[in-house]
Amino acid sequence: MTAVHETKWFLPLFSVALGLVFLGALWTGGDRRGGLEALAVMVATGFLVLAGGRSELIRGLRGDGRDAYWQRIDIHATVLAGNVAIGAIIGMCRVGVGAWPGRDPYAQLGAITGVAYILAVGALRWRS
């Protein structure tokens, strides 16, 4: 039996669902045009993922072409994206401390990220 995330339909349908969430959130916030644009981008993304079925890259991203090779690529890409996000959070904290003394909105995100990292290192060390 194939898991839901291993079918070619999961990511395109998930993209459309996220587009609808963005539409609802932006429309509620008073930005109907932005919501429609976000929905259009997410529907186009879902269509490209669905239509690119013969591409090894698309199949790897979609999940239906997964094997040990793609799992390794996924782990490395996730680590790289996480490091970029952490660097951005640190940079935004640096700017935020000067702009909003005592009320930096990025400090909490940085703290959550740091605690999650420490817990993950501890859990992975404990398991091995």
Question: Could you walk me through the main structural features you see in this protein, from its secondary elements to its overall organization?
Answer:
The protein is mainly alpha-helical and 128 residues long. It folds into two domains: 1-66; 67-128, no CATH class. It has five helices and no strands. Helix 1 (10-28) runs antiparallel to helix 2 (32-51) and helix 4 packs antiparallel against helix 5. The longest helix has 32 residues, at 68-99.
Could you outline the blueprint of secondary structure elements for this entry?
Elements: H1 10-28, H2 32-51, H3 56-62, H4 68-99, H5 105-127
**C-alpha end-to-end distance:** 31 Å
Mean pLDDT: 84
Name the helix and strand elements from N-terminus to C-terminus, one letter apiece. Answer: HHHHH
Structural class: mainly alpha
Unreliable spans are: none
Helix content: over 70%
Beta-strand percentage range: under 5%
| Cα shape | flat
Radius of gyration, whole Å: 19 Å
Give the tally of structural domains.
2
